[in-house]
Design goal:
Largest sheet: none
Helix content: 10-25%
Number of helices: 3
InterPro entries: NPP1 (IPR008701)
Pfam families: NPP1
Shape: flat
Number of strands: 0
Strand content: under 5%
Distance between the termini: 42 Å
């Protein structure tokens, strides 16, 4: 007779199975609406829920995108925020003596233990 409560059994079966381990189960691959088979698109377009909607169906995708957009995201960004200019240095600005950076660690690696002839 058990005297302590059992909180969980570990059967070794993942709750979210994935070929890529637990991280893969939490980030499933994205599927483009255009690449779905016609039968799948028709099914998703035809679903009528009582309190929600399929956000990526033909009827709802533009409304979903519009509701996710906000002008405040772009406050303070100039009209062409993607133009960073050309930062490529000229040949005169390149130091010909520049080499590989020095190692950041000054630690000396530990020596390998010597073999004693004993094996386990």
């Amino acid at each position: 007779m058990a005297t302590r409560p059992i909180l969980a059994y570990d059967g070794g079966v993942p709750l979210l199975p994935s070929a890529n381990g637990p991280e893969g189960a939490l980030s499933p691959p994205l599927v483009a609406w255009e690449r779905l088979p016609a039968a799948a698109k028709q099914q998703l377009d035809g679903i009528k829920y009582e309190h929600t909607r399929v956000p990526f169906s033909d009827a709802n995708v533009q409304g979903t995108l519009d509701s996710a957009y906000s002008d405040i995201f772009f406050t303070g960004v100039g009209p062409d925020g993607t133009d960073c200019g050309d930062d490529t240095p000229s040949q005169d600005e390149i130091d010909p003596d520049f080499g590989e950076p020095a190692p950041s660690s000054t630690a000396v690696p530990e020596p390998e233990p010597e073999a004693t002839g004993l094996s386990r």
